[in-house]
Amino acid sequence: MSRSRRNKQEKAAAKSDSKPTASTNNVKQPKNRDDMTMWEIFTSHPLIYVGKFILLPYIFYLAYYFIPLQHPEYVSKATAGLINLRPAIHGTTTPRQLLILASQSSGTVQMTKELKEKLHLEIGHETVDAAWNYVRDGTISWFHGIRFLTQPTTKEGMLQSITGICNDDFLNVFNMGFHPAEYGPPKRNCSYRTKWDACWKKECFHILLDEWGCSINNTCDIQFAYNIHQVRNPLRTMESLVVKFCIGGLEGEVQPALLTYATALFPFHNFREDSCIEAAGYFLVFYNEAMIEARKRGKINSFYHIEETTACQVAEMAGLTSLETTVYEPNYHRIQRICGESDANHPAKQIVKQSLNKVNLDMVHLGWKDLRGGMHGSKRKNGDATLEKRVRNLFRALGYDESKELDVGVVPIKPSSVDTEL
């Protein structure tokens, strides 16, 4: 190769190296911080960059509850009235449609699921907080039965009962399904990020003062158009309570949570002297007897057996099959459409099958003699039938056939022959 030709190639290569390529031009060079605007500096910060993936979903999550439940009028104004959401009831005197009361282990979780999924009602389990929960149609609960319970006879007794519950450990509070937050936004601005502290204990104290016996005194802040008592076979319910609250079997110790609440709500009975079966039995008896008395006074409208009731039948008892007694009119039209269908196989017309929160999986089956003194750790006189008589009376009052129960239980039973639920 000649020298002149080689020089030409070297010049061409140098020229090519010095010329920017298209790919080089497209690469965005980072800005010098001095050339950035305040907004660019703010949005480029690592915390802000990562935070938008956390904060935005959280904001949307809050808006999902805050706008429809507390300020649905915002949507109406923003759409010039084209979209009108259901009215808020938080902070108003508007009654809820129904309150279903049932002792623990009587199927409250299952019935909540039935009414929500089959009838599309806004029903809460244990909570009446309509500011942050879709519970505008009502609640199913055991603890809200406190509004029908008589307060302790003395101020000292009342203070002792409330202190027993509100000063308890969070684990016991959680196990019994009660928390002050279930009654709505805390008046003392307690933090939702803290599950249980001094602030929540104060909130608990004031809520119990307001709620205990409020139906008897006609002072309840939250009203329900219908109050209904849900019941389950008392012995089956006792079996579930025993499995849940007896530490170490039938003759074991009673869970502290049950002792705390039973002693507080029914201070006229010494639960600490009971065997575990007796504690569970008296707790069940006292609760249901109080609901029966409330029904006699006209405070509770009706009752039903969960073992033989459908969602549509509950809707009828709750006044949802009559336009005049339905609080929120669209519910009436929907219930008419669902429960008025000729199809008898519609899920809402099927008897409720217990499938949630099963506890007693073929472990305990009680008979009448198991309730007597001297049995399973009982300190009462051998053969004492006080509890047995109370439970038999409960059978009759609730319409169950006591003759179908065994005299002696606690024997192996066929798989799935005893369904239980909290």
TrEMBL record:
Question: What UniProt keywords are attached to this protein's entry?
Answer: Membrane, Transmembrane, Transmembrane helix
Biased segments, Basic and acidic residues type = 7-18
- Residue ranges of the region described as Disordered: 1-31
Quote the biased-composition stretches of kind Polar residues, using this chain's numbering: 19-29
TM segments? 46-67
Q: What is the protein name for this chain?
A: Sulfotransferase
This protein's species is Cyclotella cryptica
